[in-house]
Amino acid sequence: MPHTAEIKEIIDESPDTRTFRLRFRDADTADRFEFKAGQFAEYSAFGDGESTFCIASSPTQKDYIECSFKVYGKVTQSLRRLNKGDTIGIRGPYGNWFPLEEFKGKNLLFIAGGIGIAPVRCVINNVLDLRDEFKDITIIYGARSVSDLIYKQEIKEWKARRDIKTVITVDPGGETASWDGEVGFVPAVLEKNAPESENTVVILCGPPVMIKFTMPVLTGLGFKDEFVYTTLENRMKCGLGKCGRCNIGNVYVCKDGPVFTYAEIKKLPQEFNNFKFQIANYKLQIAFLKG
Amino acid sequence: MTQRSIQMDEKIISRVDLLNICQDVIEKGNTLLTPGVADYSVVKDVSNLNLDASALPSKISYKSYVFPRTEPVLYYKRSKNDVQLIDVNIDSKKIVILGAKPCDANSLNIMKHLFNWDYSDEFFNMRAKNFIVIGLMCSHFDEYCFCTSVGSSPVSEKGSDIFLIPLDENNYAMKIITDKGKEFITPYSGYLKSGDENRSKRITENVKQPDVAFDSSEVYKWLGENFESPKWEGVGNLCLSCAQCAFVCPVCHCFDITDEDYSYTEGRRMKNWDGCQFGNFTLHASGHNPRDIQSKRYRQRVNHKFRYYVNKFGEILCTGCGRCSRGCPVSVDIKEIVSNCKNDQKELR
Ligand code: SF4
Ligand code: SF4
Ligand code: FES
After folding, report:
1. Is A120 helix (H, G, I), strand (E, B) or coil?
2. Each residue's pLDDT expressed in tens, for chain B with a length of 349 residues
3. Could you give all domains of chain A from N- to C-terminal order, each with its CATH number?
């Protein structure tokens, strides 16, 4: 049974991505609802169904929870039609989380692409609230174009902080005249800006194709697969390990994931990385841009 | 579900008395199911009830009585800004299944692992708890049956609460297998005569059994080593992605969740059967599909049944009933496929 929640705030992050700030209708539920960074929930637009997104706000934020979604299909379109004050359903939290306890005393490198910034942002804000417990923090975030960047306000705040290094990049061609960040694909930008791999944990989220091209760069820089954490965003329905949708090999992503280290992912049947088409596309793009 | 076996002598029951029990079950307001040609169906009148051990398995198992094709999981009512949610009452009448095929009888036992790991599915459990499975030895077999390859047999009592073996035209040997079976039959003890194990044994020993077509542990091993085998392409090219096989399967359990409005303000959330053979089963909103071609989907089907489920729950997700192959519009035969996987000379098709 989902809980109902009121949409307190709507933030238009980019032309196709929206953030809801939500508060449970039931005060008890609001008090009791706890989650950890990386967990997800099922959000319903009653009449059109449910959709799965991570919880994008930090668990340290107790007054509300936030989710960010890109408008793709029926449910997200329906969610987009809702206004401030309307009600949505939430089931969760589901899945596992980033083991922040184990990250303490280490350097953190966040790498995010596209909507993959949502789970990463949750961890970043969680970590920033406990800043002293972690060493150096580097954030690398890339989007297709300047207007596709989300959490623009927070990015400004991250950039202004001296205790973290923030690098924002847009794909070539996506920059505007006034753009003062990097221009280039995430793997290339990473190569230039990566910290020492020694004692560093990587949190890497983004489209499969970005992960595919980022991993070799990380490996080349000396990062070990066991210390690269990512989330698998398989299609999910029930979140309860029943409906079979999210199953890869023995693993139910909704229960055993969504957070995995790259070492764990390598052991799964290689189903998620069938990128033939996307890779070809990506290579074409690069070739085209190189002239 | 208690499945602890209990020691109890074998009994004999006449056909007439068995029907008397059935009559009583119905009169008490419970549901009685027997296998028919298409489905297990509800019996209203016991007088023309015919228990035929040699019948072909019905097209669909009784899975739908515990895991319906479609069912509401909640109702909602929208008002201006708010939404009110209403729980469903799970109907859970006692259901007696008379004459379950041994390959069907074990299905709930296999599925219960999935419905109870981590989170317990109350829909499944409530109904399964109220099932009494009266299994009947099976003397049918055709080219599609392979129960003997997956650890069962036409005389297997696995999953039955009570098991019947036809002795002659008018009498059955009755074995009471579980506590639940005992509890069910106790009020009817007056109908039972004491039986003779040797007599029923002579019959079960002489039942024709399908030959063992494959060694499931070898299939398990092959699957682990051949995820990328080019052999998957053969069956991928043949299969139509219709998922008939998942729908008739007594143990496939995948489902979809959708909302259904029936007025501007009211509607319900439904849970519907689904299957991994459908092309859009794993399609992501972004358009990315990890199982974009049929060979990958068929590979998932075989792997889930003969490898992943074994890894996770220690049992093969298959009862050997052969329904998927009997009903497949393009004659994909899973028994042939898993039997051929190790044979380099043969394509998977
Ligand atoms: S194997 Fe046969 S029944 Fe199953 S999806 Fe393919 S064509 Fe349909
Ligand atoms: S074989 Fe396919 S449809 Fe059947 S339970 Fe497994 S994943 Fe679901
Ligand atoms: S989302 Fe249903 S099993 Fe994982």
Report:
1. helix
2. 444 545 567 899 999 999 999 999 999 999 999 998 888 999 998 887 888 888 889 999 999 999 999 999 999 999 988 999 999 988 778 999 999 999 999 999 999 999 999 889 999 999 999 999 999 999 988 999 999 999 999 999 999 999 999 999 899 999 999 999 999 999 999 999 988 888 899 999 999 899 999 999 999 999 988 888 888 888 888 899 999 999 999 999 999 999 999 998 999 999 999 999 998 898 887 788 888 888 889 999 999 999 999 999 999 999 999 999 999 999 999 999 999 887 766 666 6
3. 3-94 (2.40.30.10), 100-289 (3.40.50.80)
User: Hey, are the CB atoms on B227 and A208 less than 8 Å from each other?
Assistant: no
Interface of A to B at Cβ within 8 Å reads: 1-2, 4, 6, 25, 44, 46-51, 70, 72-73, 76, 85-89, 207-208, 233-235, 237-238, 240-245, 247-250, 255, 269-272, 274, 278
Q: Which residues of A are less than 8 Å from B267 in CB distance?
A: 46-47
ipTM surpasses cut 0.85: no
Question: A82: closest CA among A69, A95, A100, A91?
Answer: A69
Ligand 2 first shell, C-beta below 6 A:
A 244; B 246, 252-254, 275-276, 300-301, 304-305
Q: Is B60 left (phi over 0), alpha (psi -120 to 50) or beta?
A: beta
Q: Looking at residue A237, what DSSP letter applies?
A: S
Residues B100 and B136 sit within 8 Å (Cβ to Cβ): yes
Question: How, if at all, do strands B83-87 and B70-78 pair?
Answer: antiparallel
User: Could you tell me the distance, in angstroms and rounded to a whole number, from the CA of residue B325 to the centre of ligand 3?
Assistant: 27
Give B56's DSSP letter: P
Q: Rounded CA gap, A153 and A5, in Å?
A: 25
Predicted TM-score (pTM) of the model is: 0.88
Best probe of the A interface among B259, B268, B281, by most A CBs < 10 A, is B259
Exposure letters B171-185 (e unless 16+ CB within 10 A, then b)? bbbbbbbbebbeebb
Give the C-alpha distances (Å, rounded to integers) separating B334 from B66, B299, B318. Answer: 25, 11, 10
| CA B256-A232-B274 angle, 5° bins | 15
